[in-house]
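Researcher: First entry.
Model:
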Amino acid sequence: MARAQAIAKLNQVQKFATRHRNRCKVCGRSRAYYRDFELCRLCLRNFALRGEIPGVIKASW
């Protein structure tokens, strides 16, 4: 509930531009956000392991 409320609050027009906070499109997490994918690190890892992000593979050597 709190996370959904935070997302709804950030979707409103902000009074000041510095209040804008990037959030994950899937879970709404605000930290560890990757701008290129618009996902947090946790969702990015899950999608990459399932092969749902083209060109992203798990590193192994």
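Researcher: Second entry.
Model:
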Amino acid sequence: MEMRWLVLGIAICALVFATAGAIAGAIEVPFKTIAKGQFCDYLGEDNYVVRDEMTFKVLMAKAGIVVNDSVNFDREMVIATFYGWKPTSGYDITIRSINIIPKATELTNKDVMVVTVVKKKPGEDCILMPVITSPFHVVKLPRFDGEVVFKEITVVEPCKPAKIDASGDWGPPNNYY
């Protein structure tokens, strides 16, 4: 019996992901970035839907993130996404879009919110700074009490080849500070 529900859940998620953005009836949800950066104390790779003030305060404290915007949890909610601990520069995470898919499946006949998250990682040939990063993006948006699913897209960003500067040396001139 449990296997049937697992297969059904996977089928619903696959349908939502396959159609999110292809459905003409998708409703784009406006959102506002309230925190974004490369360094925080949260080292896990996770996504959060936050609908109450206490959970929000605990999560931001755990991540070491200071948010100056207020959030009215009666009318708004927060989406937070963390890329986790990364050993170098060159990584980033961005909430690209948020859409509501009306009556996403015939089975449930309920609306589903799809949050598209883009994870950028550097190409293999990149020269990177050896610094620990932990990229994050936190947004607030109108409250939605239905199911929220995350669609993650990983993009490998190739590096640009070094150029010869006017002196004939590779890279920036010595006086670029």
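Model: Note on the second entry: Residues 3 and 38 are 40 Å apart (CA to CA).
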